Amino acid sequence: MSDYVEPTNNLSHAWLRTLELVHARGGRRTHVLTTVRDPLAPEDPVIQAAIDDVLKPGKRSGVAIQEVDTVAGTIFPQDLYIAPRFAWSPDLSPDREAELDAAADDLYRAYADMLPLLCTAAGNPRGTYFGRMISWPGKEPGGLNQLADRVRYLRSERRAGHSTYNMSDITIGGQAEIVGAVEADLGVQVYASTDRRQRGFPCLVHVDFTLLDGRLSMLAVYRHQYLITKAYGNLLGLARLLIFIAQQTGFTVGELAVQATLADAETSTYGGKRGIDALIELTRRLVPVGQP
After folding, report:
1. pLDDT 10s digits, 52-101
2. 3-284 belongs to which CATH class?
3. pTM to 2 decimal places
4. Using an 8 Å Cβ cutoff, are 229 and 65 in contact?
5. Residues 9, 130, 111, CA angle at the centre, nearest 5°?
6. What is the pLDDT of residue 139?
């Protein structure tokens, strides 16, 4: 049974509504669509504090727990990106464009330098999502930088005056396609077509970008979305990734949507039904009236 979570204006409320819906309907649901209308909107500090309090690093019922920012950093390492105070545009001066490019290059280089060490950390033996984006297949430096290719492609669309374009070819293929002597447009690939694992990394299997009227929107597809251990951090990391690409290409930030083929409230990990009830009740009691 598919479930549609009513869209909200920020990722905190999107996360809470998704958890409430899945929990109320038995704790696991298929094909759950969650939408954040404004990924730029500030997080709700009450909800943020509630999930931070639950996600103390360590083990819970045998499950490895990471802080929200740690999870978000596997998708986009915000601390490594020193963002210029302007966005790309076709009429940007060469010096300003070089400044924007240098900020992105510094991010890629810093993360690539850390990648071998990151892959030795608990939870990362098969790499990280951002590693696969900037150095495919993602376990060591020097791989294909798909994210840089995506930025170049979107800039070419902006130069050509294209403001509406469906980029449905952003998929999960494991290698670049060469057309003639030119590398074809690449999506943000997160696992190879030869990957036969049924569960485990990567849960994120597809990232799709679409332009509509100058707004750049993102859809991410998860095989198994762990709604407490991972989902909040995933939303935060995806929002940061979308904001980064929008700045680097000059498009306006659009919607962020997440499709979970299986959404899991993790009832057995977090104290059973009563434990999830308590988390939702506490958060709802503290969220100001009218939200969300």
Report:
1. 999 988 888 878 888 999 999 989 999 999 999 999 999 999 999 999 99
2. alpha beta
3. 0.88
4. yes
5. 120
6. 65
Per-domain boundaries in the chain: 3-284
Could you give the CA distance from residue 246 to residue 260 in angstroms, rounded to a whole number?
Answer: 24
d(CA 133, CA 139) in angstroms, rounded, equals 11
- Contacts of 99 by beta carbon, 8 Å cutoff, 6+ apart: 84
* Cα–Cα distance, 220 to 204 (Å, whole number): 7
